[in-house]
Amino acid sequence: MRLDFSVAVHSLLYLDENRPRKIASRELATSLQLNAVMIRNILSVLHKQGYIEGFVGKNGGYQLIKDLAEINVGELYDLTIPPTISYARFITGDSKGTQTTDETDISVNISQTLTDLFTLADEDYRKFYHQFTMTDLKRDLHAHGFFRQLINPK
Amino acid sequence: MRLDFSVAVHSLLYLDENRPRKIASRELATSLQLNAVMIRNILSVLHKQGYIEGFVGKNGGYQLIKDLAEINVGELYDLTIPPTISYARFITGDSKGTQTTDETDISVNISQTLTDLFTLADEDYRKFYHQFTMTDLKRDLHAHGFFRQLINPK
């Protein structure tokens, strides 16, 4: 779900701005306006991938390990929103080939053609995000329009 | 919904293969494996845009007016899947600015940054589809792999 990506981006930006303070998931939850459980799932993924460190106890919380410039936005996207494995619910026709009512065989063959189209489009879509690092997003956060300017320079 | 795009693509390919026969929405429904009402909604859009013609009566049905080579896949995509107006459900933070719990203002500002990111990514995504005409999809339908080859030539 695209929200997982936003949770990751928001959390990393928050940890960065608050360096070197350790941030509890409850504090992040307030900033993200989401419940802490949902955020912890994503923090766990970011932890496994070596983006952040977590400390337990009284002065516990999360800290960002990497520099924002080292964090590719596309990698975050791939991590939090894995490619769709099946496009079945977006595809028309008789992909199981159970009927032969369609003389032109479009009904049976359209599934593979549309799956290829959607898969290639998704690969292309991900390339867009891979052009940027978290530093670009941070700049836009402090000066809206930076990002639009970066993509569509006058 | 992405299914609307598939309905349009499938219908146009079916009408093309069956030229000059007039095709009833019931026959299309069998090929698409969807109910006829859903298909008629999309056919109505295609009719308004001048892709197809509809005839009522005993020998009624739909006919493709345009040549597949004249039908851009991206135009079909834009027609059936309009750009998202609001990304609210994919965005974290306090976009209404009702709270001031977040000293860094990330919570208030992240909404616009993520909206810009998603909007620009979507514009880029649509460009992918605009590279092709329905003729490309027809070729792939008859020889799977054509499309992959077109995008990623060896």
Name the beta content range of chain A.
Answer: 5-15%
- Radius of gyration of chain A equals 21 Å
Largest interface: A-B, 55 and 55 residues
* CATH architecture descriptor name of the largest domain in chain A: Orthogonal Bundle
The succession of helices and strands of chain A, N to C, reads: HHHEEHHHH
Our measurement of the CA-to-CA distance between the termini of chain A, rounded to an integer number of angstroms, reads 33 Å
CATH topology-level name of the largest domain in chain A: Arc Repressor Mutant, subunit A
Portion in helices of chain A: 55-70%
Outline the biggest β-sheet of chain A: 2 strands, antiparallel
Uncertain runs of chain A are none
Strand order of the largest sheet of chain A: 1-2
Structural domain tally of chain A: 2
Separate helix tally of chain A: 7
DSSP strand tally of chain A: 2
Please state the average pLDDT score of chain A: 91
CATH level-1 class of the largest domain in chain A = Mainly Alpha
Shape annotation of chain A = globular
Describe it for me?
Chains A, B: InterPro entries: Tscrpt_reg_Rrf2 (IPR000944), WH-like_DNA-bd_sf (IPR036388), WH_DNA-bd_sf (IPR036390). The structure is a homodimer of 154-residue chains. With 154 residues, chain A is mostly helical. Chain A folds into two domains: 65 residues, Orthogonal Bundle (Arc Repressor Mutant, subunit A), CATH 1.10.10.10; 50 residues, no CATH class. Chain A has seven helices and two strands. In chain A, strands 1-2 form a two-stranded antiparallel ribbon. In chain A, a hairpin with a 5-residue loop joins strand 1 and strand 2. In chain A, helix 1 packs across helix 4, helix 2 crosses helix 3 and helix 4 packs across helix 5. The longest helix of chain A has 25 residues. Chain A starts with a helix and ends with a helix. Chains A and B meet through helix 1, helix 2, helix 5, helix 6 and helix 7 of A and helix 1, helix 2, helix 5, helix 6 and helix 7 of B.
